[in-house]
Amino acid sequence: MSANAHNDAHGHDVHHELGVAHGSMSGYMTGFILSVILTAVPFWLVMSGKIGNPTWTAAIVMVFAVVQIVVHMIYFLHMNFKSEGGWNMLALVFTLIVVGIALAGSLWVMYHLNTNMMPSHDMRQML
Amino acid sequence: MSTTVTATSEAPVFYEVDEHPHPEGHSTALGFWIYLMSDCLIFAILFATFGVLGGNYAAGPGPRDLFDLNLVALNTTMLLLSSITYGFAMLAMDKERVKATQVWLVITAVFGLAFLSIELYEFHHMIHEGAGPQRSAFLSAFFTLVGTHGLHVTFGIIWLVTLLVQVQKRGLITANKRRLMCLSMFWHFLDVVWIGVFTFVYLLGMLR
Question: What is the CATH number of the domain that holds B127?
Fold first, then answer.
């Protein structure tokens, strides 16, 4: 109880005790507007087919996704190098490395497995 | 005897001797962040599964036959709006405005429910057309990935309603603020995962 009373008396200290900043109105609005733009543009690119080449469209759409994830991390999840004395960022970096290995490894191995295990001739020749 | 005493006093100390304060919940934010990172790994594996199986249609329908990007865009809008309204709830919470916090949380829940309804409509429509999870490896992976995200949103809404009751009963006490902060991280995290879903599953699916 005394802990609660203490915290309530110093309401502005709660953030520090929770270890995470809550951001500001301008921060949330910046994040929101950036997110709207970063969502609308890839949808528009795919739906209108403005760029004829699907490979290029895919690459651009993926770049937009990565940028939007970073925007969300900064403006909505309030990630920085200082929160929790850097442990948040350390956990994030570790996770990203594991995720990168898992994704790249799975796709790479399974792609090669598919190409190497497939019969080299196509099925029509067997008829 | 004296040698023992000397040895003890000179022995290196491998731990903190003095008790230091552990205020309640001081490590919750970090602990919850680590939980989110483990959740991130679950989604990474589901994305990898979808990446591997996403092209195996088993002569069944593909993304172009099934996905309606207008619906996905609407869904994305709902989740993005719920993210910003949760942000407003947190700002109201910082200013100790109980009523405003509750109102923004309710709006967030409504957007979350709208997202879920649209997703369930899409699933129902697909299953009705015979494109259920058992149709092909692509559809199994699709329903697992998108369904897991949908389940997370469902539990997020249940959690949100629970916290609404808590705030109603006890007000914005420190414990409730901590809980609301955890849910805000969870909610924004789900929005981050959805960026991956609409990009890799829907947009890139239409380009395949």
Answer: 1.20.120.80
Say how many domains are in chain B.
Answer: 1
Show the domain range for B107: 25-207
Judge whether B38 lies within some domain: yes
C-alpha dihedral over B162, B165, B171, B177, to 10 degrees? 10
Structural domain includes residue B16: no
Q: Which of A11, A15, A110 has the CB atom closest to B52's CB atom?
A: A110
10-residue mean pLDDT series, chain A (127 residues) = 40 46 85 96 93 91 96 91 85 94 93 78 55
- Residues B125 and B139: their CA atoms lie apart, in Å, by 13
CA distances for B148 relative to B143, B152, B156, B193, B194, angstroms:
8, 6, 12, 11, 11
Dihedral-angle region of residue B25 (phi above 0 means left; psi in -120 to 50 means alpha; beta otherwise): left
User: Does a structural domain hold residue B152?
Assistant: yes
Nearest to A91 among B37, B83, B177 (CB): B37
- In A, residues 58-117, which contact B (CB 8 Å cutoff)? 58, 61-62, 64-65, 68-69, 72-73, 76-77, 83-84, 87-88, 91-92, 94-95, 98-99, 102-103, 106-107, 110
